[in-house]
Amino acid sequence: MNVKLEMLKKLKKQKSINTSEKINSKKKEATRWFVHLRDEICKSFEIIENTPTKDNNISFSRKEWEREGGGGGVISIMKGNVFEKVGVNISTVYGEFSEEFRGQIPGAEEDGKFWASGISVVSHMFNPYVPAAHMNTRFLITGEGKNQKMWFGGGGDLTPIFEDTESKELFHKSFKDACDKYHQSYYPQFKKWCDEYFYLPHRDEARGVGGIFFDYLYNDNWDEDFAFIKDVGKAFLSSYSQIIKNRFETNFNAQDRQAQLIKRGRYVEFNLLYDRGTIFGLKTGGNTEAVLMSLPPNVSW
Question: Which phi and psi (to 5°) does residue 126 adopt?
Fold first, then answer.
């Protein structure tokens, strides 16, 4: 079964979204959650960053930006001794897709109108034995009237430099537990989708060890879908924080560091060539600095 096609079919059958009042309520609730999750992630990561050296007080710096076509966001970046670079971005943007892009987005085919809010996290660690990680969740509304559609998307994935079965299993179990609360099919379907998505065909290799990935999530039960989105964010924060704590004091050498920089090169290649989030951000007039936040600070090929 092609999960993406099945979810798209269900989405296309979505009935018109009640009233503008209810739509605005959903927008506000989702946006508040992404801000809250951003704050929780930043707080947790700052505690981890400052644990080894008690006299340090390294924290996230924040930068607001506005989108010319409507909306904007906040870039949060921290660079330290545990996190070489970690970005936690939130944005809420709206407007109209370009003529060339609107045909690719359900509900936007006719007028191109959209509203989108979400959070994106990318972490590149100083110690090569701590995996890099990515997570994003988002809520989208497209079109107007009877053609209007809304859905959730997102996921998270882990990129170890070296084989790390313990971290992989911890990360996947956390997402599986979150998925299983809602539907037994979620984890196997979303894991497969993630494995297929985060793949570099020109290298014939996976970017990392996967996680979950999904889009067009709509089950005619917004509250339940939104609860799942929140649990995805919580699962990521819990599992990845533990992975960092388990690994950041591991000894490494120059050869390990070079292997990390080369692996980061694969990360860059994927994000610039294939990542849908990068394409979406640039095609919709997003902040270039925010869109390319995922790129590592140091890299080698």
Answer: -70, -40
